[in-house]
Amino acid sequence: MRNTRARVSTAHGGRTRVNTRRGRQLRLAGADLSNANLTGATLWNANLTGADLRSANLTDAELLSAILAGADLIGAQLHSAHLNDAHLDNAILAGANLTGADLTGADLDGTNLTDVVYDFQTRWPDGFTPP
Questions:
Q1: CB 3.0–4.6 Å: which of 2, 27, 72, 105 could bond 85 by disulfide?
Q2: How confident is the model at residue 7 (pLDDT cuts 50, 70, 90)?
Q3: Burial of residue 125, with CB atoms counted within 10 A of its CB: 0-12 exposed, 13-18 middle, 19 or more buried
Q4: Domains in the chain, ordered, with CATH?
Q5: What pLDDT shows up at residue 106?
Q6: What are the CA-CA distances from residue 120 to residues 58, 124, 125, 130 (Å)?
Q7: In terms of C-beta density within 10 A (0-12 exposed, 13-18 middle, 19 or more buried), how is residue 124 classed?
Q8: pLDDT reported for residue 4
Q9: Buried/exposed code over 19-56 (b: 16+ C-beta within 10 A; e: otherwise)
């Protein structure tokens, strides 16, 4: 298996971009990103399976189709994050802030949503009943 090289940069306005070669998937499975400031990060299709994202700030992050299966997001800030079509099966989001987040099409099978914070702007997958 080849490693994917990634470049992390801060764009104008302080937004974090994680770029890989075109067509490559960013592999951060099992990474320790606890307490990381990933505000506004672009992590489309990123593989974050089993990653430690406890208390990470992912406000306004773009995690479209990201794989977060089994990831630990306890207390993470996901305010206004874009989690469209993300794979969150068996992830732990206990105490996470999902106010204004878009989870349209996300896989929430087995996801721990204990004490999650959300509001009327939070968008859930069709047919999903929030806790």
A1: 105
A2: very low
A3: middle
A4: 36-126 (2.160.20.80)
A5: 98
A6: 19, 10, 14, 11
A7: middle
A8: 40
A9: ebeeeeebbbeebebbebebbbbbbbbbbbbbbbbbbb
